[in-house]
Amino acid sequence: MKAWLLAIAALVLSIALFLRLWSAWSGTAACTWDDSTYRALAVESPLSLPQVVRSIILPTIDNHPKIKINTGYILWLVMGLRTFGWLGTPSGSWGCFASQTERAWQVVNIWLLLIQLWCVYGIARWGLGDRSLAMAIMTAYLVAPIVFGMNRWVMTENHVMAALWVAIAMALWAVVSQRKWAPILAAVAIGVFATTREYALPLLMLITLGAFVAFLCERRYGAALIFLLIAGSYEICALITALPAFDAARQKLLDPEAQRQFFNPMGAWLAHMVMESWGPGLTAILLAGAAWIAWSLYERRALRLEGPTVLWITLGIVMVGTMGGAYATAQRLVRPSIPPFIFCMAFVLVGLRVVGTPVVARRGTLAAALGCALLGSAALLTYHLFVRFDQGRSYKHHAAFMEYYDHPLWLRPTIDRNDRHY
User: Which of 4, 104, 280, 419 supports an S-S bond with 84, CB 3.0-4.6 Å?
Assistant: First the structure.
């Protein structure tokens, strides 16, 4: 059964990556309002390539004062523009773009996607103890609608997803690794992505705090101090930069008109999340994994408080908090489902190892379930990319309704720079 699962995962992974690369080179990228703003900001930036690299790698305050969001994704776009701007833009798609550089930004997104896949595979490999199962989980994540779909958009959420996965994976690696330099490298990696969106920055800070407590539980006091000082310096700089964005987000959340405009019933939102964000296949995998963990905890009734356990508890707290935030807010769109999705997936993968679930003894059953979920997810992705919205000709994006980011490969070509897909 493992051989069949590996074959299915390899096939789906290869086809999905090929379609992603093809869409970056020849597909039609969606063009609406936020993404057009980010493209324009990248083109208008006066930073040179060395300045951009320095701003990404080192703690920096107020890199891009023209926009009320954190600057990380804009810096990555500028880096892509300076490095791959010569790649040009697919024909038929140039009209609404700020310059002839769309392929450069698609390269940036693909790089951020590969970072996500590497982190998911590493966490799943540690949690499940099996390379084939880890590869299947990674492939299921890739073909999730919000992952594959959002990666084709020039949107800050690509940086958010990479930042959250890097923080979780590197914190876990630093806690379980006995290498003395692991906390330093992990803290720097987390810090590099600290310039993420304002709503994701507190989540990174909670992960940093959880890893710090995990080090203390293992009596690695030096590692705890070094990790906190390095990661904290990046996050404090990012927090100072994000203060205007926090204020803007607070005003928008409390605005009655915005609450009315972006409100969607909870039941409809959850159903949309299953089909358009997480995907039914991956949702079923996560629900089964959560039930497995709950049963194992019921049988054990106690956990040994170690570093990975502390980090797992932190993931659980953040998962519940992000889900509660999605429930409490009246502004329910697709993008707010990203943090709960990532933390739920990380909570399940880490929990399978922490609670001592005998995954190895049940590889056959798990492999069969993963194979079925992968085939279902691949079928849904095929429908999204090739069939619906009249094969892309009738696709429109709406600011207030629940979005469909996993749009078909071909869209209506834009006419000029004022033309948009809405």
Answer: 104
